[in-house]
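testing teh design pipeline on a random one, pls ignore if ur not involved
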């Protein structure tokens, strides 16, 4: 059985692009669409979205609008940003096909999320840093501008081909139905909570200066993304943070 696949649109400006994205997803057999802070709160019901969906209105009806990326990533264990411009810091930049083949080789994640930024300026650095990889679609060197829905279609196609077309259940080992916490990977929301806890603890012991944090927390984010901690390991690390806070509080008495 293929992993849970989610497509996340961040601060989308044009309702028509949301409808076209729904159509692109349905063509490839996906229907998990989440919008983070779109320009129009009622974007899923706007005429432009329904018209561009062209038969994929059911995908729009299932879609959700949320206020934070954390909410959108609930349950996801592998996060893929999309950006045409390489970043000087953050996750590695890779072509979709090569990265997907590597995922299959080492075992598919439980949940995969694909993030797409605003049409005008793309993903923010902060959102890219949340990701395990930055996917860059190979394009002509002198012109790499892609419409949002076109980019979604390309990623959805490559991912569908990777997980086995319409026979994914026959080609991928079925997941265990009752994994222990020591075996289940922590989702993106759990990792974000851990980082927030550690930021408090590191500040309390004087290691992190909130006024000049530099890139300590994004670097810790990337470390955790590479490590892919389990739920049990996240609980252990949060226990360490809790002990640091308690020790710092006692030292001030």
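output:
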């Amino acid at each position: 059985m293929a992993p849970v696949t989610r497509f996340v649109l961040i601060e989308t400006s044009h309702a028509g692009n949301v409808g076209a994205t729904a159509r692109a997803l349905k063509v490839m057999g996906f229907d998990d669409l989440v919008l983070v802070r779109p320009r129009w709160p009622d974007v899923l019901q706007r005429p432009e979205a329904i018209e561009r969906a062209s038969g994929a209105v059911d995908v729009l009806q299932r879609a959700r609008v949320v206020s934070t990326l954390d909410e959108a990533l609930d349950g996801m264990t592998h996060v893929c940003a999309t950006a045409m411009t390489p970043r000087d810091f953050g996750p590695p930049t890779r072509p979709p096909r090569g990265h997907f083949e590597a995922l299959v080789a080492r075992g598919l994640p439980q949940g995969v999320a694909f993030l797409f930024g605003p049409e005008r300026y793309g993903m923010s650095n902060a959102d890219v840093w949340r990701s395990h990889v930055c996917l860059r679609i190979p394009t002509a060197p002198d012109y790499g501008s892609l419409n949002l829905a076109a980019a979604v279609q390309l990623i959805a196609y490559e991912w569908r081909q990777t997980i086995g077309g319409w026979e994914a259940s026959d080609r991928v080992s079925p997941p265990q139905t009752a994994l222990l916490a020591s075996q289940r990977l922590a989702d993106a929301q759990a990792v974000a909570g851990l980082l927030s806890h550690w930021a408090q603890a590191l500040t309390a012991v004087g290691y992190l200066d909130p006024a000049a944090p530099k890139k300590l927390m994004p670097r810790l984010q990337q470390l955790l993304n590479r490590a892919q901690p389990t739920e049990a390991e996240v609980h252990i690390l949060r226990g360490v943070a809790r002990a640091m806070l308690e020790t710092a509080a006692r030292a001030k008495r």
